[in-house]
Amino acid sequence: MQIQTIAAETVFAPIPWTKVALEDGFIICKESGFSRVEDLTELTPPLENPHFWKEVRQLYFAFEQKDWQKIRLFYQTNGPLGLENPRAPDGTILDNHPPNRERISTCKRFLNWFRILTLMVKWAKTRNTAPLWDLFGPPRKSKDILTLSILFAEEWPWPAIWYTPSLDINWDTPINRDELAWISPQNDEQLIRAAWMAVVGAVTEMLRFTPLLPMTVSEDPFVITWGFQCNGAFFAAFLQWFFQEIAYINVSTCQADGCNNLVIPPRDKYCSDRCKERMKKRRYRQRKKGDLKWPDG
Fold it and tell me: Of 7, 11, 75, 170, which sees the most CB atoms within 10 A?
């Protein structure tokens, strides 16, 4: 059976900054909105483009190369990134300044965080360990956990990508707390596991900034459409990537009788080898009885 209902929608209604100025390290909105009603009705929401998150990721290089023309065009089309007054996960305002402007260094920092995070997922999924080793560094020990755990933090504490290394403990000998040390991944399997846990932690923290709100209510009081409200192009791109690459939406459920577990790619029909073998044996018994005529799927 195919799941047809998405749990929540990503809601992003960009308001273009039609006139943009670059002054004193800020991108400043001089005029926003739509000059004609036709512009509003003809607007194609960015999230209808499945590659929008990649376009936002590439925007980092426009900031890096100071390609102001490309940056202006992005803001005039998609509005701001939503980083006017960024906050840390605990609610602390990281950069407080007048409205309708975004600090260039802040935009660059968040975009670089997003770039590295998305690449980490790609490398982990394809088991491309070489760039992951470059990011984590060689296997080593340290009594300072921060020396090992922080993978990205241009301006600590946020945004950041970090993981919790393991303690180097020999359980066959008495434990001396003064000699305890943290240990980084020692092989490819540990590396991929640590990379994935770092991704999970970073994604969890960023999701704190995206409110989940009821959007529409049907005649049935128990059916509500929920939406993740994105206050800017950066958060819209982040959520689009999240649902494409991290969360599993509209995946199949297990075709084994009595099992409704999700079938996570790259599996196709069954959630596990156990369910696959169970159904294979059942079809075999049914064929022996003459109840089933078609071959195994």
Answer: 75
Q: Which residue's structure tokens are 């009603």?
A: 37
Q: Which of 125, 110, 114, 162 has the alpha carbon at shortest distance from 245?
A: 125
Rounded to whole angstroms, the Cα distance separating 175 from 1 reads 53
Q: What is the mean pLDDT of the chain?
A: 83
In sequence order, what DSSP letters do the residues of 209-249 get, joined into one string? TS-EEEEEE-SSTT-EEEEEE-SSHHHHHHHHHIIIIIS--
Instruction: Report CA torsion sign: 45, 119, 64, 159.
Output: positive
DSSP state for residue 262 in the 8-state scheme: B
Residue with tokens 């022996």: 288
Q: For residue 156, which amino acid is it?
A: W
Nearest to 124 by CA among 279, 74, 285, 116: 116
pLDDT in tens, 20-71: 999 989 999 999 875 544 444 444 457 678 889 999 999 999 999 999 999 9
- From CA 146, how far away is CA 197, in angstroms rounded? 16
Cis before 50 (ω within 30): no
- Output the pLDDT for position 41: 43
What is the rounded distance in angstroms from the CA atom of residue 200 to the CA atom of residue 194?
10
Are the C-beta atoms of residues 29 and 248 closer than 8 Å to each other? no
**In angstroms, rounded to a whole number, what is the distance separating the alpha carbons of residues 176 and 192?**
30
Measure the N-to-C terminal CA separation of the chain; round to a whole number of Å.
15
Widest CA span in the chain:
81
CB-side exposure of 216: number of CA atoms within 13 Å?
5
Helices assigned H by DSSP within 18-154: 37-41, 52-64, 68-78, 104-125, 129-136, 145-149
